From TrEMBL:
ATP-grasp domain location: 116-313
InterPro entries hit by this protein: ATP-dep_AA_Ligase (IPR052032), ATP-grasp (IPR011761), ATP-grasp_carboxylate-amine (IPR003135), ATP_grasp_subdomain_1 (IPR013815)
GO biological processes: purine nucleotide biosynthetic process
Name the UniProt record assigns to this protein: Formate-dependent phosphoribosylglycinamide formyltransferase (GAR transformylase)
Keyword DNA repair part of the UniProt annotation: no
UniProt KW ATP-binding keyword: yes
Record-level Gene Ontology MF annotations: ATP binding; ligase activity; metal ion binding; transferase activity
Length: 408
């Protein structure tokens, strides 16, 4: 099977998709923005050809490139695994008559108001929301729904540029960041109270062949705005337990796939559970970011990249998750902006619980700090696993309390 893989070199985890496709027998043709000389020999060994383009989201240029490839070989699939690339890839699929995620599905998984409108029509419980291109439209929605509200870009990923507002004054201030009276088109949503997590799958023909559930501590918006917090996300190994409460979440995931037309693809679905019960938040038709797949692999005795490749190339998976370990990451923030000067508490944590550490990223002194809102991988972090979910939570809490990142 000949597969065109969009942007195999960046970010660093992208190389695993090329590796996995090659390992399961695919012929991999890379298309990316870097010159071929910037690729290392190992990455190049997994591809039979690499083609540079100025911008992988330029549909016209990408279409021309894929058609050039089609003049040489039959292209069975075209795959993209980065949020910003999924819509362009889907449009090129349709231009070049390559099977896979449709442009409609990719659009619905990118445009939050349209996504939620379709899902509400399908009976999936989700927050009230609207798309707005003027301040007047936002105020009308606020008058009808009330506060608090969430404002975010229509096609953003993660919590970047997401704002919570609790009253009219905060709303007007936030609108200024989106363009004032004539705002760039944004999504405006009812704020949903509750605990937040995500549900990730490798789906085949719309059915979850592999699935994983993770929890945020605290919720993302608070985590990305508060320096002193050492936020975590933790993947549970209790998904298959008869006493777990994940059946409703799995059922919701299946309904979302059906409503949005998701077929064979990785998915990343965010959810809330609170006083109003389980609520859908949003979904991406792609893998999660910040190394979540690496945590799933470390906890489940499998290579999830290879299983994704098996799903794409062969239409099935070869390994079931063992659920042996719960896994998680705790992000460690510098005490101020500047340059990292050192760490304290690392040896204490290593002595107490080093056997449960998967890996740690501790940038050397002199490294410039990144802002709090840059995310879980922005500065330092530690990743851990343990057979018991609650014990893992305690271990991650201990790391967050003990390890300090000093900056000056």
């Amino acid at each position: 099977m000949n597969i065109v893989l969009i942007e195999p070199a960046f970010p660093p985890t992208q190389r695993h998709f090329a590796r996995a496709l090659a390992e399961v027998g695919a012929t991999v043709i890379g298309v990316g923005e870097r010159h071929v000389d910037a690729l290392d020999d190992q990455l190049k060994s997994w591809m039979t050809h690499y083609h540079q383009v100025p911008n992988v989201t330029d549909v016209g240029a990408l279409t021309d490139t894929v058609r050039w490839i089609q003049d040489k070989v039959w292209v069975d699939r075209l795959e993209a695994t980065i949020e910003a690339h999924t819509l362009a890839a889907a449009q090129v699929r349709e231009n070049c008559t390559i099977p896979g995620t449709s442009a409609r599905t990719a659009w619905l998984c990118r445009d939050k108001p349209s996504m939620k409108e379709v899902l509400r029509s399908a009976g999936v419980p989700t927050a009230a929301s609207t798309a707005a291109s003027t301040a007047e439209q936002v105020h009308e929605f606020a008058d009808a729904i009330g506060y608090p509200l969430i404002l975010k870009p229509r096609t953003g990923a993660g919590a970047q540029d997401t704002i919570r507002v609790d009253n009219r004054e905060q709303l007007d201030e936030a609108l200024g960041r989106f363009g004032g009276q004539h705002v760039s088109s944004i999504a405006v949503e009812e704020f949903v109270e509750g605990h937040e997590g995500f549900y990730d799958t490798v789906s085949i023909d719309g059915h979850a062949a592999l699935d994983f559930v993770s929890h945020y501590y605290p919720n993302v918006l608070e985590a990305m705005r508060t320096r002193w917090i050492s936020p975590q996300f933790v993947s549970t190994n209790r998904v298959d337990s008869p006493s777990s409460d994940y059946a409703e979440l799995r059922e919701m995931g299946a309904r979302v796939n059906e409503a949005l037309g998701i077929g064979t693809s990785a998915t990343h679905m965010e959810w809330f559970f609170g006083p109003k019960g389980l609520r859908f938040s949003e979904i991406g038709c792609r893998p999660p970011g910040v190394g979540a797949w690496d945590l799933y692999s470390a906890g489940n005795d499998l290579d999830i990249y290879r299983e994704w490749a098996n799903a794409v190339v062969h239409g099935h998976i070869a390994t079931r998750p063992s659920r042996q370990f719960a896994t998680g990451i705790v992000a460690l923030r510098p005490d101020r902006d500047g340059n990292i000067t050192g760490y304290s508490g690392v040896d204490d944590v290593q002595a107490r619980s080093g056997q449960w550490v998967i890996d740690a990223h501790l940038p050397p002194p002199g490294t410039p700090t990144q802002p709090v809102e840059a995310g879980y991988w922005a500065n330092a972090y530690v990743r851990m696993r343990h057979p018991d979910y609650d014990t893992l939570r305690e271990l991650l809490d201990d790391v967050g309390r003990t390890v300090q990142v000093h900056a000056g």
